[in-house]
Specification:
Elements: E1 7-9, E2 12-22, E3 30-31, H1 32-37, H2 45-53, E4 57-59, E5 62-63, E6 69-70, E7 75-80, E8 98-101, E9 105-110, H3 127-134, E10 157-163, H4 166-177, E11 182-190, E12 197-201, E13 203-206, E14 214-217, E15 229-237, E16 241-248, H5 255-262, H6 285-297, E17 303-311, E18 318-322, H7 327-342
Length: 344
């Protein structure tokens, strides 16, 4: 999917592209309203049908009705009169946990539940809304997002570096691109991992049937994804779950969540990837109640961006920051620790 604020074509300067897709070569005929429901987050069938009625959904350059059947290799675009909402940025006086700041950059400890940048269904209350309130003239990245060098998921907590100058944006972005930055996460995953440590290598791309997920492509299909490398290490075995650290070489969307699921150890309470179900353990009612209580304590995927390291863009100094595991995740770890001890 692409999103842009540029006019859709030179002959029509009033329409803006909000979403675009190319149907797979193996796509079976499917109504376009159903097709788009699986690919646009928070989109209802009524909204999609209304967009089609307004003539806003195009296939191969032609407006279509909601009953149009998507065919292999169809080029689908959703075009509207206004720019995507994510570009209509409004400064908001939201609290920021700034752990470091100088004239070039700042490091923020993001709380779980805060979206990093505006997007479909989340047009306010984001980190960017807060940043543009507290800081003036932040440089845009290649996606026109002020200050952002990298991002973490809404329900992942932890550290982010934000650029305050064009020089810092360029320098820091190169470090992330060249894989010289340090990013280490702590996660609780389902199951008892066999090895003490290991490396997961697998090309990551959009899931062919559920566009809100990513997946690993292997063999002849690996060109459907982008190379991704995650190094993991066991910190503590807690019975039916394991506490691990994950170091990223690459920064693909949902990388740790996808890679850990790929090796059979989905993140605890990761609803999008199936971790909100009991994947390991017994059938006892007491155990189910225990897990449900853990879910209530930690109502999100068990993932925290704990360590962030990079070279300062002007001083050349090696900068390294650590963030404590937040209370919700720490309480969940303690509950599992107690359970594992008394289940012997």
């Amino acid at each position: 999917m692409t999103t842009t604020t540029q006019p859709a074509n030179e002959n029509d300067d009033e329409l803006y592209e909000h979403h675009s897709f190319v149907a797979d070569k193996g796509q079976t005929p499917l109504r376009i309203d159903k097709y788009l429901m699986n690919r646009i987050e928070n989109a209802t069938r009524n909204k999609i049908q209304a967009a089609a009625k307004d003539g806003s959904i195009y296939v191969n350059g032609t407006p279509v009705k909601s009953n149009y059947k998507v065919k292999p290799s169809d080029k689908i675009r959703v075009l509207l009169e206004h720019p995507p909402y994510e570009y209509l940025l409004t400064p908001e006086d939201l609290p920021l946990d700034v752990v470091y700041e100088d004239d070039q950059l700042l490091v923020v400890n993001k709380s779980a539940g805060m979206v990093v940048h505006p997007g479909h269904g989340n047009y306010s209350g984001t980190l960017i809304n807060a940043l543009i309130f507290h800081f003036e003239n932040l440089p845009n990245n290649s996606s026109e997002r002020p200050g952002l060098v990298h991002r973490i998921d809404k329900d992942t907590s932890g550290l982010l570096v934000v650029a305050k100058t064009e020089q810092a944006m360029t320098h820091l972005s190169k470090q992330f691109f060249n894989k010289t930055s340090e990013r280490e996460y702590v996660a609780i995953v389902w199951g008892n991992i066999d090895e003490e440590e290991g490396t997961i290598e697998g090309h990551i791309g959009r899931h062919p049937r559920n566009r809100l997920q990513n997946t690993v492509f292997e063999g002849d299909d690996e060109d459907k994804g982008k190379p991704a490398v995650t190094h993991y290490k066991v910190l503590e075995r807690l019975g039916y779950v394991t506490l691990v650290t994950c170091k990223l070489e690459t920064g693909r969307t949902h990388q740790i969540r996808v890679h850990m699921k790929h090796i059979g150890h989905t993140l605890f309470n990761d609803e999008r990837y199936g971790g909100e179900r009991i994947l390991k353990g017994t059938t006892f009612t007491k155990y189910k109640q225990f897990v449900d209580n853990c879910f209530k304590i930690l109502p999100r995927q068990a993932l925290h961006a704990k360590t962030l390291g990079f070279v300062h863009p002007t001083t050349g100094e090696n900068m390294r920051f650590n963030s404590p595991i937040p209370d919700d995740m720490q309480q969940c770890i303690e509950k599992w620790r107690h359970y594992a001890t008394h289940a012997q």
